[in-house]
Amino acid sequence: MMKLEINSAQEMQKLGASLGKIAKPGSLLLLNGDLGAGKTTMTQGLARSLGIRRPAKSPTFTIVREYREGRLPLFHMDMYRLENDDLASIDLNGYLNEQGIVVIEWPEIIMNDLPDDYLQLTLKRVDDSWDSTKRVVEVNAQGKQAKEWLEDTLAKFEE
């Protein structure tokens, strides 16, 4: 596992943009972190780098938001409100087979239903102040595609 220090919302969006520029069809990104940790902020940067014009919003109340107008389709999911692990309310396998990018917030609820190749980021506040934008991002890549995605993203992010 590796750790990145992020000092602003703009830097979090830059990390997301780096992920989006490198992402390939079938990429799976899992985002962990408390409410307000920056998961949607990162996804906004990713969406913009794909050429998605409309603002990416949190899917907390809709479970899935679809963005199809970019270089790759983006499916932004939030499992926080998924009741009783009820995946029947969404077609998870359908989204995973779409050959787009799937971003899942609160993935721990459905980990047993996910493929073995994914990039997982855990976003943590550096201090307890709600107005602080400093974060530590713990990065874990599982599988060949995710490891390549991570290596290429880090090179892009450091440019």
UniProtKB/TrEMBL annotation:
Q: Which biological process annotations from GO are given for this protein?
A: tRNA threonylcarbamoyladenosine modification
Q: Which PANTHER family did the record assign? A: TRNA THREONYLCARBAMOYLADENOSINE BIOSYNTHESIS PROTEIN TSAE (PTHR33540)
| Protein family (similarity comment) | Belongs to the TsaE family.
Q: Which lineage ranks, top first, belong to the organism behind this chain?
A: Bacteria, Bacillati, Bacillota, Bacilli, Lactobacillales
Q: Which GO terms describe its molecular function?
A: ATP binding; metal ion binding
Top-rank lineage group of the source organism? Bacteria
Membrane spanning segments where?
A: none
Where is the protein localized? Cytoplasm
> NCBIfam families given for it?
T6A_YjeE
GO CC aspect terms: cytoplasm
InterPro entries according to UniProt = P-loop_NTPase, T6A_TsaE
Q: Which Pfam families match?
A: TsaE (PF02367)
Q: What is this protein called?
A: tRNA threonylcarbamoyladenosine biosynthesis protein TsaE
Q: Which gene encodes it?
A: tsaE
Alphabetically list the UniProt keywords: ATP-binding, Cytoplasm, Magnesium, Metal-binding, Nucleotide-binding, tRNA processing
